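Pilot study result, target chain (306 residues):
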Amino acid sequence: MRRTPTVLLTALAPVSWGSTYAVTTELLPPERPLFTAALRALPAGLVLLALARRLPAGAWWWRSAVLGALNIGAFFPLLFLAAYRLPGGLAAVVGSVGPLFVAGLAVPLLGQRPTARQLLTGVAAALGVSLVVLRAAGAPAPLGMAAALASTASMSAGTVLTKKWGRPEGAGPLALTAWQLTAGGLLIAPLAAALEGAPPALDAPALAGYGYLALANTAVAYWLWFRGIGRLTATQVTLLGPLSPVTAAVIGWAALGQALTPLQLAGTGLALGATVFGQHTPKPFGKAEHYQRKFSMDAIGGALRR
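Predicted structure:
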């Protein structure tokens, strides 16, 4: 399958994002979601901007601002707020319905109606993730639920619009990623300064954690993600999202000593199965297949007329 290398490279993005929770809880200062979001986005955007050596032009100034706000500027803070406010892995469960959000948004924005296969695959992925991460840890906070839903809607809308607008001629995924990360970081940074005050003191583990989040977890991962959006369907890309909570669960088991129950293992299998199944799209009839099919139908019709 010719798309397989692209799918595998794109999948590295949500796999990398699955390490965010462990890095945040083990290495970073607590209760600084906006500061962490700003340090993830802005340095990564500036590094990629220096590498791309290209600025937006024309309509791409406002398009980059819109995409940067949806994919980064709103998504990062809402995601951290949901993670702090919701019990267990409920934020990840809400986030796993992203494929269903994308399927719904693709109708008005891309003119693509979701198939029954896509909807069932999205439901199966969300169910698998819920089995992996959901915990009975009290009632969810309304603010946390609202933030989780808003973050999922924001990223889903950004994914669909990225697919709809593509990228300007001569600009590659590196430039598009740089513009969005920089725009999103510039949106988050003043909010972090206003709401969280001066940056906290950072020790060596925190510096290493922020370096990892900015470079591998954000700069490289989002470049792979937006590259994948340009080459795959929006639904295919979004169905890779469940790899993030599954990776987080595996890291918790392997590195943090967290046990995996049989139900969680079953959920992992279901989420991974839905992810793989969602990458296969029916092949359209080519010209040869069209005439072969037409000839077969004509022959059947002639036989019936006899």
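One observation from the pilot: The mean pLDDT is 78. A full batch analysis is planned for the follow-on phase.
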